[in-house]
């Protein structure tokens, strides 16, 4: 029976090509724009480290002196060196890392110096964030303490400086200092760069990783957010009143999370006793997805675009409802004849829905092409996330399901009206 | 006109009319708000900086080897002299942060020497003596810095020297409403006496509440080149690219091995362009959506009206046979569409307002100015009349003889 409806629907659609084309185009435009923006949302709001995102926690505290503390303040993103070092020393998590973004000028054999983005961090960084290494290995906690002059470099920098060969043991010249390469990253591109969102949320990974103790020793320049509340020449000094270090801890069970939270509260209490401040302090422990959400990683423009596109799809659907209604009711005569010849109301309803479904599928195919075009356009936008937007199989399927569902939804009311055409009246007026 | 007849006839197509009214209403709401969003973006992009942007280029240089502070400062002076000597350059300066650059620095500013006093964050420009001249800033009160007022970076940071400060007019009006700011003291890096007020100077980047965009202050500081960016004021705007090339060449040949790259050199106009490219892309996207929406709405009107015309061929024929002119038939469909569009617009005004409230809640957007509503209404009326023209013409061409045929 469906094959027969299909046949009838095709004939009917062919009879009125302009109207059919208009309907297909309307659905396609709605689907195309919605799928483009949904793809962007899907990519940007994805979990960057799904296997571990619930076990990695960003540690934040508000330990401003009383003069700088206002109740209702947001907890600052970063820690002071003094607090980060204290937490590192206690090492109450399964793993922990303190870090900062930085940059350095590397001299190359070719003679032209090269500016590279760096991350100054501690030994646990590599196992914590599942960083793959192609050659060599990361450094150890002992290397951190000993301020070893070592570095792990990215695959891209290894390609640029050493032609992609195993460069473990080679030397990286940073001004008049030198660092020994002990590891080369494999394919690692964490997006969004959730571990530090202050230097561009999306982008390539850093090119050089150095123990933070070593970086401080060599006075390598840092970048990112530095927030000081007193004056002093060196913002990186142990007791400098400056917030600039990111701190992450790995906790693999909920009970450890609760215990760690308690530990942070105890730390705050100790600081109060030590006379740093009299206010209650603030503590925040957020896992990766909570942290991304709190920082609003999905740009508000992208959210706005998505709502705009969904609204547009809604208007396209309204339009399709109108056009389908016009189309079905125009055929009242034909439907009347079929009813008079014994077709049930259900049969008429089904036939109309099949016709709507065909329009939807055609709209889906054209819409997919438009969405492909849309994604291509987005990839050429000058945004920092452009390069990461792509359409996967899931979104492809979603497109078809969305197209079919929306066209069937749009067909419901017209089919319902068509089903109630009175055979006698339709025949008579004919 | 026969409004009553038309309304009566429309009442027989309640669903189709309802759909059109809804479609027009939603289009009205989305288009009005999208236009408002576009307007907000354009306004943001066109805010003046107070700086003579057309004549400025900037070149950043980074050191490879760390030298003594004295050697670095000496190199900085040599560089500035070399750049100043380039033909086509009228002024050079060094500054800690550039407009539309990558970073900016702030300091809390207070009116009393008391850490508990309320403070506002204000961005600070630290730079050499010729900074104001190079940027093309206009002094509105007081004076520029004197050569003997310049201090080192570290001395300013330590905050004990009483370094003078020049502030922007917007900041002066905020801190000292109704009073002259010149001669007053603010507390940023220790106690700083205001010696001058510039007409306009803004934050290098868009940050914080919009009202604070025009708050800025300048300090007389000898910046070492690794911590700053060279600014060159160019006599002829057509020469900007050529001068960037010459400047890079001069810096490469002058002094020790340093990181000198065209990657860190740009005209200020290009930097502004790059800074606002997301806003521009968003504005174009909104324009595209508005156009698509209007097209889709027009398609809906054409489709449904065509359907009505086909359905009413016989009635039209009868009306023609009993004396209606073609103009009467044409007018009938136009009036009908006008009524439907009016319904849509009335409902659309409410939706527009509601959508604006939602946007205000989630996107820190202002209230939609009322004049957007009549503009949107006129646009939709025109669109409707245009869309209905084709089907209406077809209707007016129905010959009276149709009335006599049984269908």
**Low-confidence runs of chain B:** none
**Biggest sheet record of chain B:** 8 strands, mixed
Number of strands of chain B: 12
Strand content of chain A: 15-25%
Largest interface: A-B, 50 and 53 residues
Give the termini distance of chain A in whole angstroms. 27 Å
Averaged pLDDT of chain A: 88
Q: How does the overall form of chain B come out from the CA principal axes? A: elongated
Low-confidence stretches of chain A: none
Question: What does this entry look like structurally?
Answer:
The complex is a heterodimer of chains A (430) and B (407). Chain A is α+β, with helices and mostly antiparallel strands. In chain A, 49% of the residues lie in helices and 16% in strands. Chain A has helices at residues 2-15, 17-44, 81-90, 125-128, 141-146, 155-162, 212-217, 254-273, 288-294, 300-330, 332-340, 345-379, 393-419, 423-429, and strands at residues 56-62, 95-107, 114-121, 133-136, 150-153, 171-174, 177-185, 208-211, 222-223, 227-228, 242-243, 246-250, 282-287. Chain A has a 6-stranded mixed β-barrel. A two-stranded antiparallel sheet of chain A has the order 10-11. In chain A, a hairpin with a 6-residue loop joins strand 2 (95-107) and strand 3 (114-121). In chain A, helix 2 packs across helix 12 (345-379) and helix 12 (345-379) runs antiparallel to helix 13. The mean pLDDT of chain A is 88. Chain B is an alpha+beta fold and 407 residues long. Chain B is 50% helix and 18% strand. Chain B has 12 helices and 12 strands. In chain B, the strands form 2 sheets. In chain B, strands 3, 4, 5, 6, 7, 8, 9 and 10 form an 8-stranded mixed beta sheet that branches. In chain B, strand 8 and strand 9 (190-198) form a beta hairpin. In chain B, helix 9 runs parallel beside helix 12 and helix 11 (326-363) runs antiparallel to helix 12. The two termini of chain B are 29 Å apart. At the A-B interface, helix 2 and helix 10 of A face helix 2, helix 5, strand 12 and helix 9 of B.
